[in-house]
Amino acid sequence: MADTEIHKGTPGAWIDRIELPKADPRFDSQIKNGISNLVSEYQIRQRPDGIEAFDHYAYKIVDRTGLERGAAINFEFDPATSQVTMNWLNIIRDGVVIDRLPGATFDVFRREKDAEKGLFDGWLTAYVNVDDVRVGDIIDYGRTTVRTPIVGAALFFHSVAVAWGEPIALIREKVTWPASQPLNIRQSRTDIQPEVKTEGALKSYTWESINPAPVKSEDNLPADFPTYPTIQISSTGKWQDIVDAMLPYYRLDQELPAAFASKLDDIAARYANPEDRMIEAMRLVQDTIRYVSLSMGRGSYIPRSPSTVIASGFGDCKDKALLLASSLRRLGVQADPALTDLDGGLALGEMLPTIRAFDHVIVKATIKSQVYWIDATNYLQGGRAENLVPPDYGFALPIVAGGARMEKMERKELFEPTTFVSEAFDFPKLKGEALKLTVRTTYSGADADSMRYRVVSQSATKLADDYLQYYNRQYPGMTSLAPLSTNDDRDRNIVTTVESYELSAGDLDADDLIKNFPLKADVGISNLPEPDMVGRTGPVWLGSPVFKRHQCIVHNLKAKFVGPEKSDDVITPFIAFKARWSNAPTEFQVDWFLKTIGDRVPAKEIGPYLKSRRKMADNASWSYNFGYAETEAN
Questions:
Q1: Using an 8 Å Cβ cutoff, are 522 and 550 in contact?
Q2: pLDDT per residue over 217-275, tens digit each?
Q3: Long-range contacts of the stretch 410-413 (C-beta < 8 A, 24+)
Q4: Does residue 459 sit in helix, strand or coil?
Q5: Element housing 480 (H / E)
Q6: Contacts of 84 (CB under 8 A, 6+ apart)
Q7: Is 301 within 8 Å of 243 (Cβ atoms)?
Q8: DSSP string, 90-105
């Protein structure tokens, strides 16, 4: 393990020093938190044992609010692969350079931000509070980091944003690399070209972005649409090079413990169909091996052996994927671990090859010509082969000995609602009686998987209380009549819940609730993104496919009620919303449907999209005077 201390020392002669630039005064109004950014500089060169990188930052404290932000410097690093040296730490005051490095004390501590999720990465945070910083001072510091990769030491990748969300005078990137090893370069949303120089056996590439206009931060962007204009630099253009670096650690011929192997043999004896064997092995690994990610040092990239994982009873995504793929191979099912990214997987199709593109490992199983993508870290996943829900990660890279390529995980189109809520309101037949409400909700597909996990991870009391609070907000005074009932058909991947409520006659009459009784569609309209359309340039990401239905049936009415004469359907290329109603002399029924069609809304369509979203929200709640009777009209 590398040192966990921050060293002090001068930078090497290879560093190309620059003068501090001045920020463009046009952007003064966009300065954030009292800081005027002057320089963000990054220089890289190859070493026999890895990469040496130099960072240089300079900024000016322009007002009192900038002192809190600018007087403290902190950064994170991986002690298993990195050794950090602070080269200088200066305050520049009225043109005079004050050296603060000799007296600087760096506190190095570990803070695991996702420990409650079972994720531990071992990274450290270095923190220093600079003495005697004043408004008007320039903080100027540089540091060098030597990185010794655990996997793929010969592979190099760097990505740089050439504009920020706030003003900066200069962004400068310089890569010095062997001239005999041409670099692969890919631009996204920028046309900045590097200055290229060759000196002997080395070639340098330098990019400069001078006073770039700040880029407005936009929410709900698809992963394949970068927030900022970006340049990617990679030492390879072939994904196979990435796979070859990982292959030695994902051997699928490792011996399995006898007891676990016996469970797999029992699956083979009970199920002749390879699809059934796949599902049973998936459930064995998902349900019996708990998820804990010890991604520290070697654990960041290298899985533990299946025997170690089984003996400990826990594993991370790498561990569980290797165990599942090994298990499937034993059962005669072709399977390979595959690299992907939980949040940024959709962007993998646009990435230059790099190990750093991934933060997750899943399994690709192939039976005949059918491909199945399985996330072994899921818990209690339902379905059989024909209705198994694949993870919605975009792209994945199978770890195979030859022909490795980035593969797209196709989404399954939804032909039926995956959440169907049916509310049955039984109005009192006699004065003084209570209203009864029975809610039956059917979850299928991905929604069933989510609900199944929610049922086992929360207490039934907490779940029932959440539902009761929801109905009390609409119908004050609602009380529960029975405990929440759940039924799970795991093979069909259908979870059903039933709720029973009562609203007293007094609460029904209070504030004339019965005369202005709301029926409301809970189909997820509020979950649809509502972006700011002013100056937006990127598309709006709608997320995973959605198809929901909400039904209200009202019984024991004293008059015949109808819905609107004209249906206010909303049909766009991105989303569809429909409302349908029917009636009988004493019964009224309305059904709302919401389905996303595309996965994003283009920037030029934001206005129509927001208009349709408002229209859906307006038509998702109807109110009636259910105290009205036909005899009153007569």
A1: yes
A2: 899 999 999 999 999 999 999 999 999 999 999 999 999 999 999 999 999 999 999 99
A3: 411/544, 411/545, 411/599, 412/545, 413/545
A4: coil
A5: strand 479-480
A6: 6, 7, 75, 77, 126, 143, 144, 145
A7: no
A8: EEEETTEEEE-TTT--
User: Residue 611: which H helix or E strand, with range?
Assistant: helix 606-618
Residue 578 and residue 613: Cα distance in Å, rounded? 12
Residue 633 pLDDT class (50, 70, 90 cuts): very low
Rounded Cα distance between 571 and 535, Å, is 25
Whole-number Å distance between alpha carbons of 478 and 499: 12
DSSP result, 159-224? EEESS-SS-EEEEEEEEEEETTSPPEEEEES-----EEEEETTEEEEEEEEESPPPPPP-SS--TT
- Tokens matching residue 314: 């826990």
Distance CA 328, CA 309 (A): 16
In this structure, are residues 224 and 346 in contact, taking their beta carbons and an 8 Å threshold? Answer: yes
The three-state secondary structure class of 470 is: helix
DSSP 48: T
**Contact by Cβ (8 Å): 282, 374:** yes
Q: Write out the two tokens for 1.
A: 């393990």
Average pLDDT over residues 169-182: 96
What secondary structure letter does DSSP report for 151? S
Question: Which bin fits 583, alpha (ψ -120 to 50), beta or left (φ > 0)?
Answer: beta
Instruction: Provide the pLDDT confidence category of residue 631 given band limits of 50, 70 and 90.
Output: low
> Who's near 153: CB < 8 A, 6+ residues apart?
49, 50
How far does CA 352 lie from the centroid of its chain?
21
From CA 91, how far away is CA 99, in angstroms rounded?
7
Report the run of H or E that residue 455 belongs to, with start and end.
helix 445-457
Angle, vertex CA 555, rays to CA 549 and CA 561, nearest 5: 80
Measure the CA angle with vertex 594, ends 589 and 596; round to 5°.
165
Q: How far apart are CA 466 and CA 497, in angstroms?
A: 14
Q: What length is written for the chain?
A: 634
> Residue 233 and residue 183: Cα distance in Å, rounded?
7
Tokens of 532: 């700011």
Amino acid identity of 336?
Answer: D
pLDDT in tens, 275-299: 999 999 999 999 999 999 877 777 7
Q: Which two tokens stand for residue 198?
A: 């060759």
Please give the radius of gyration of the chain, using alpha carbons only, rounded to the nearest integer.
Answer: 30
Count other Cβ atoms within 10 Å, centred on residue 36. 24
**β pairing state of 547-555 and 587-596:** antiparallel
CB atoms within 10 A of CB 21: 15
Query: Which whole-number Å values give the CA distances from 460 to 174, 399, 482, in the listed order?
Result: 58, 42, 12
Distance between alpha carbon 237 and the CA centroid of its chain, in Å?
Answer: 26
Question: pLDDT digit string (tens) for 8-22?
Answer: 999 989 999 899 998
CB of 232 closer than 8 Å to CB of 157: yes
In the prediction, which pLDDT does 412 show?
Answer: 87
pLDDT at 163: 97
In the predicted model, what is the mean pLDDT of the chain? Answer: 93
Percentage of the chain lying above the pLDDT 90 cut:
85
For 552-576, give the DSSP string: EEEES-SS-----SS---EE-SSEE
